[in-house]
Amino acid sequence: MLTGAVGSYFVLGSIPLGLALSARGVVNSLVDLLNNRADNHRLLLLWLTLGLFFTILDALSRFSLKFFIERLRDELNLKVTSEILIHADSLELSCFEDPRFQDILARARQDSAHHFAQFITTTLSAITNLFQSLSLIGLLVVIDPLIVLFILPVAIPYLIYQWRLSKTRFQLEHSRATKHRWTQYFVDRLTSHESVPEVTLLGLGPYFIKKFQSLMTEFRDQDRNLYIRNLLINMTFAFITTIAAYAVFTRVAFRVLKGGLTIGDVAIFGGASIRLRTSIENAILDFTSALEQMLYISNLLDFFSIKPQFSKEGGSAFPSARGEVKVKGVTFTYPGSTVPALKDISLHVKPGETVALVGENGAGKTTLVKLIGRLYDPDQGVVLFDGYDVRTLSLEYLHSQLSFVFQSFGRYEATISENIIYGDWKKLLDDRKRVEEIASLVGINNMIVRMPKGYDTMLGRSFGEFTLSMGQWQQIALARAFARDATLLILDEPTSNLDARSEYDLYCRFKQIAKGKTTILVSHLFSTVNMADRIIVLDKGQIIEQGTHEDLLAENGHYASLYRLHQRQMKMPVSA
User: Fold this and answer.
1) What is the pLDDT of residue 56?
2) Domain 409-485 class?
3) Measured between alpha carbons, how far is 514 from 507 in angstroms, rounded to an integer?
4) Alpha helices, DSSP H, located in 109-262
5) pTM of the predicted model, to two decimals?
6) Are 53 and 92 in contact (CB under 8 A)?
7) Helices (H), 258-388
8) For position 302, what pLDDT does the model report?
9) What's the pLDDT tens digit per position in 484-511?
10) 2-55+73-304, which class in CATH?
11) What are the structural domain ranges in the chain?
12) Distant-in-sequence, close-in-space partners of 189: CB < 8 Å, separation ≥ 6
């Protein structure tokens, strides 16, 4: 595609000179015939044929150039966007929780494929226009060298100005990254089916719209100032160069009267000089645009320069996984925070054991399981899986041995079957029977078959026409977790959205579902922790108690206090 585009640009670059020469030849041949200085029409026909050839070549080359440029843009869009997604997939969670990274990502996603394609096409166009300009200068200098003295001195300041303008535009866009993300945030809040109900009930629409309009008005006013400056400079350049070219054209016309030049010379000089002004202007604009696109491409390079701290490949893989977890002296502080989320945590979860992590909000429960899944690395201490430091294991292997239901679980815009398959898509993609077995194991098969299209029902409001309650979504998420043949289950608030019947049903099925697997439950609900063999109580990032439910009640400590509070809440009368 690139070779075809280069060839098309080269052909287009040579056409103005060919048309100018053929026009000059036609005019001079006609003059010779009319003045009886030629006795046949062969030379006239030759110049007419040459003009026809260049005219047809001009038309065809433009269509071929459009074809090659469109194909090139498609290829670059596929390649560049794919590379962005592949690199993003290689980065760890902490990157995406950093607002500075979000700005870098936003700049990289800012139509990078378009900027890459624009850089190539504008560079080629600049070279083409430069070639046209040089060839036309060569032709016009033969007729009257003064054309160079009138046009080129104006072109150099114009080039400098356009380059400065390009840098100003880029710097302005670069500084807007955070504000652009805010505008998109307000658009999402006002248009997303998940946020619209609350925004409507709170009457936040006018307030969000006002904030959106404030940012967009700021962008508009800044851009308007640049547009005005650019308009004035462009008009000045066009005015000066046109006057200069016409002045030289007048001089050429008078030289014809004196016999110094031919009619053909004056015929092509007017058109060629205006074409020269346009070619120089386009060459400058294309050249500065290419430099501007390079600045935007630097945003993409900034994104790719962020190297993942964890390697998904490499490390060691051990096929005889048992699901044993040991945490030794782990301390962890979130980036940007000064208060550790975990402080000197140590625990041992035996293979096949079910352990519950209990504590108030902010106690560090979810942080601990994220460290076990190596979504983060600890500042101090070590996390062991089956006796091996998780940092020595390949992420691919570690994650293949782990099923994780997050508190903010995924609700994928896909069919019900696909939502379950995503748990282990490499194995389940073409295994509908196994998908149905998993759904039956979790107890949601009856719910699914009542859906409009059963397992093929498209979920979500963005692409489908059917959605689920939060409890039903959570049941799907649990099925997705159990779809993976993992040795370690990590369930973060697995029943927080379930009704009493569904929670009881899951409780009855849990021993069968988790048979042979190590399970870590994170929960505020005391009904859920009854599934556990052992309970670990966290408070302010530290383990303060552990034991069975009965042991902890007998200790009459923090756990017992939380349990009694829960019991009082359950006994509170419900107002009518």
Assistant:
1) 85
2) alpha beta
3) 11
4) 112-143, 146-175, 177-191, 196-202, 205-257
5) 0.70
6) no
7) 263-304, 365-372
8) 84
9) 888 998 888 877 777 777 777 777 777 7
10) mainly alpha
11) 2-55+73-304, 320-401+488-571, 409-485
12) 195, 199, 204, 208
